[in-house]
Design goal:
globular, single chain, mainly alpha, 5 helices, about 0% strand, about 130 residues
Length: about 130
């Protein structure tokens, strides 16, 4: 039996997974990343088409918790090919999380947890 899609679970899995990936996991053919994305999708019950929106929400939360300028931060392009779009966004977010951690003198995991807290609070406000 498949899980019901859970956007917050997807974002949580992706964010924590990206915080743990190493730069070399994202080079070359990105097979490690493709496998990770497959696991995140299966565990969250999400469809590939929903991932870009979730990743862009994570991007905004990371920018906010790190006090990085939303106006000057490049906006990643989301291409029509869902697999490429997700891979490109994951690479971008991994780099953003790393930069955010450096600029705040926190670890990538700390940045991710702060961003997830922000997203969770926003989701709770919307559902109430």
């Amino acid at each position: 039996m498949a899980n019901a899609p859970n956007p917050m679970k997807l974002v949580t899995l992706v964010a924590r997974g990206l915080a743990e990936l190493r730069d070399e996991d994202l080079r070359g053919n990105k097979l490690n990343l493709e496998l990770e994305v497959s696991v995140w999708l299966r565990r969250s019950g999400a469809e590939l088409t929903t991932v870009p929106r979730a990743l862009l929400a994570l991007r905004r939360a990371v920018l906010e918790v790190a006090a990085l300028d939303l106006e000057t931060e490049p906006t990643p392009m989301v291409v029509a090919d869902g697999q490429r779009a997700v891979a490109n966004l994951c690479v971008y977010l991994h780099e953003l999380i790393t930069r955010a951690a450096r600029s705040t003198q926190r670890s990538p995991s700390q940045i991710v947890e702060l961003a997830l807290g922000r997203l969770s609070a926003a989701a709770a406000r919307l559902s109430s």
